[in-house]
Specification:
114 residues; four-stranded mixed sheet; 4 strands
């Protein structure tokens, strides 16, 4: 692949990420789907979001290697899953768990419904 083509594909992947984050109040980039998580961390993130009755969308990074790589640059976070709430990067399953345990996650999600 020529350097220009690779740059264009990476830019397209970044645009796809931006669109998903903008179009969904809660967006989870994960391995697998919310119905069939493909790793323990992704399963934890889905379980936490379900525990607080969050309406959320997911994207399976295993289905698109460019999105899987570009999401790490987009968020400046090296691991998957990655959760965005109201367009802002929140973190991975460890951060979601901390927010859930402190009550901050429910509070943040309640603000979205106002």
């Amino acid at each position: 692949m020529a350097p220009g083509e690779e740059a264009a594909e990476r830019a397209a992947a970044t645009d796809k990420i931006k669109s998903m984050v903008a179009d969904n109040k809660v967006m989870l980039f994960m391995k697998g789907s919310k119905l069939f998580p493909q790793c323990g961390f992704s399963n934890t993130a889905v379980s936490i979001l379900r525990a607080v009755d969050a309406e959320f969308e997911t994207f399976d990074v295993l289905s698109d290697s460019l999105v899987r790589e570009e999401i790490k640059t987009f968020s400046a976070w090296p691991t998957i899953p990655q959760c965005f709430i109201n367009g802002e990067f929140v973190g991975g399953s460890d951060i979601l768990l901390e927010m859930y345990e402190s009550g901050e996650l429910e509070k943040t999600l309640a603000e979205l419904k106002k």
